[in-house]
Queue: 2 jobs
Job 1
Amino acid sequence: MNTDKKELAVAALRNGTVIDHIPSNVLFKVVKLLDIEGMDTHVTIGNNLPSRRMGTKGIVKIADVTFPEATLNRIAIIAPGAKINIIRDFEVVEKRQVRLADTLVGVVRCGNPKCITNNEPMRTRFDVIDRDDVTIRCHYCGKTVKSVDAQIC
Ligand SMILES: [Zn+2]
């Protein structure tokens, strides 16, 4: 395989999931959120790529993995404009936007050190209180946070 072909092999995806239009500043949060680090499939991560709409963007390509819809929708917490492309045999067979759920369980860590979720072995729970601004509120202590600033569990 010559160098050109190797580059193509990295760029193209036969089967898998492409997450596009991720704001550059949250790309690695998305990687963490999907637990991509622990996967042994072929993963391509690109960041600070030129985007006409966003200035720069990040993109993640994960070979041979299709995520449950609920998992992908978690991306909406930090990247509400992200787009999902499902690839089969080099063709995009499904294209859709991530969708923010009303409640997030076990996804985001509460920023309040006194919150029960930081002191008991339990899952966090946040309610989305502003969808335009993507602001979420801890179900247990009431602390609100803009989701882009939220710590992923
Ligand atoms: Zn809390």
Note: The CA atoms of residues 5 and 35 lie 29 Å apart.
Job 2
Amino acid sequence: MSTLGHQTVMLGQAVEALAIDEARAAGVYVDGTFGRGGHSRAILQRLSAGGRLIALDKDPEAIAAARTIDDPRFEIVHASFSTLREVLSERGITSVDGILLDLGVSSPQIDDPARGFSFRHDGPLDMRMNPLHGLSAAQWLERASQEEIREVIRDYGEERFALQIAKAIVARRAERPLSTTRELASLVAGVVRTREKGQDPATRTFQAIRIYINQELAELEQGLVMAMDALGLRGRLVVISFHSLEDRIVKRFLQRLARPVEPPPYIPIKARDLPLASVRLLARQLPATDEVALNPRARSAVMRVAERLAPSGP
Ligand SMILES: C[S@@+](CC[C@H](N)C(=O)[O-])C[C@H]1O[C@@H](n2cnc3c(N)ncnc32)[C@H](O)[C@@H]1O
């Protein structure tokens, strides 16, 4: 399904995973990544008149798109999902029935040259999901040390040529600042020597800088804690990630909560008195092959689903 330029990934599977049955159709749900609202609209279709959907996004353009939804059960909030606790407590909501996080960037963000996310279009080197906050990629590349740039490109892009790219950036900025996506893409292309099949040489570097500029991994870690905190008993968490760094964080976080807590061997405690696991892992799903054929962005998607067991915080 395409909603104003964003083809929603795993739409049916994700909404199904929230398990909004008759008993829960009057519940409270959170879409932490509204984008263009493909998932939100499908969730609203499942809710009864008493249901409620709070949607969040960091991007002011996503917020503007959400304003076209005229539904008393729906509210859009310009905030990061890492601040979910405040968002809910400001509304007096103490627990929710389901939370969806469809991570990463939306197609309108990537496709708009003015947002500076893509090496395919020339535009200002920005890459902020929320351009009202923080440093743009160009500003960061102007100030960061060679070592910082190398670490970001190596760790978030898993790029073998991180050192060479960082050196080239620092040499180039000594002459004049890097200010456009095309300048960065061609500088990287001049340094990356082995090209991966079907991949632009700048792919890894752009991914890395985008993750850093938006603090995507730290936001995810914090967002998962917030989500667990907010979910009521039997509430569902559904997370769709698009690269291995994100999926690893989700997997480890959920696996840790799915294990019953083991006390150190020197503490005498009966099995029945042990704290229980706080989530049950329900699924790890990939998009269907026909979805991947229709939407190349779905190719790298992985969806994990968990259910809240214990009502207390993790
Ligand atoms: C893949 S898109 C979501 C698409 C959406 N599910 C749809 O169907 O249209 C991801 C969205 O999440 C937003 N986003 C990413 N990280 C965020 C965060 N930490 N907090 C809030 N929004 C975030 C991005 O701005 C983008 O609009």
Note: The longest strand covers residues 231-241.
